[in-house]
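I had to read the description of the data format several times before I understood it. In essence, backbone conformation is discretised, so a fold becomes a row of integers matching the chain in length. I therefore recommend that a typical entry be quoted early in the introduction. For illustration, here is how one protein appears when written out as sequence plus structure tokens.

***
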Amino acid sequence: MINFIWFSILAIGIIFGIVTGRGAEVSKSIIVSADSTVKLVIGLAGIMCLWCGVVKVAERSGLTDKLAKLLRPLLGLIFKEAARDEKAMGAIVMNLTANMMGLSNAATPFGIKAMEELKRLNKNKDGVASNDMALFLVLNAACVQIIPTTVISIRAAVGSQNPAETIIPSIITTGIAAIFGVTMCKVLQRYF
């Protein structure tokens, strides 16, 4: 459906440009936007490679492991069944730690593993998510971003004077989102 909508918008714009006698302007804008898109993607790829390297250094230096050790007691308080299972908690901690460090590609396998472990612990075998599964999903979606690498990369690629100035606002907003999400999960667990 979305492809149909985008195609319709594009076709209507081109037809309207031709009918109003601005076909040359439409053609020129298509070429200019395609050129700028390619430049943005190439710039973004280089910056993303740099950030992936920086985060890999943090991972290999043990920074992510230290962060995981700090998170484990806190997560043990909010997860009921998973707190007693080492495999489930290990996958949850590694997923959230990788997301915090901007390693979304590395976080995905840990997220899948965490959900599999939470499914194994789920007492309801009818395909209904457990409270811990819902809580993990919320935490994964609203994970606190210590290093928002994608945002920094995009800002740097388009020529921002200070692309990393979003770090503090990102920490604050994702922190508030995570706290609100956990609070809502805990409140709704009492009723559902």
In short: The first helix runs from residue 2 to 19. The chain has a mean pLDDT of 85.
